[in-house]
Amino acid sequence: MSSLPNCPKCNSEYTYEDGSLFVCPECAHEWALKLETEDNEDNNSIKDANGNILNDGDSVTVIKDLKVKGSSSVIKIGTKVKNIRLVDGDHNIDCKIDGFGAMKLKSEFVKKV
């Protein structure tokens, strides 16, 4: 038997999957299951080293000494970074650090303040 849900509009049992949506052939109603959309939101969120979700404008603290590529200087543990911006990519935090300037950091090396 089919494990697909019945149509929430007309309660038809003849639903089918079309990509990420479910479709009812009788009333042409389309919908997505809420569980799938919640999983997608969790995958897109950026989390710090402790698992807290980061947002634009948050303040974070560096949890490990970080070498600055192309320089002999180091960003010390405990350095506070204010007003971060989240971006796509490997280094997913864009910020400005006092004394260093514009930097990109990985979220796994910071914790939310």
Automatic annotation (TrEMBL):
PANTHER family tied to this protein: PROTEIN YJDM, PROTEIN YJDM-RELATED
Classification via Gene3D superfamilies: 2.20.25.10, SH3 Domains
Stretches that traverse the bilayer: none
NCBIfam families: phnA (TIGR00686)
Domain Protein YjdM N-terminal: 3-32
Protein name: Zinc ribbon domain-containing protein YjdM
A matching Pfam family: YjdM
Residue intervals of the Protein YjdM C-terminal domain: 46-113
Similarity remark: Belongs to the YjdM family.
InterPro entries reported for this sequence: YjdM, YjdM_C, YjdM_N
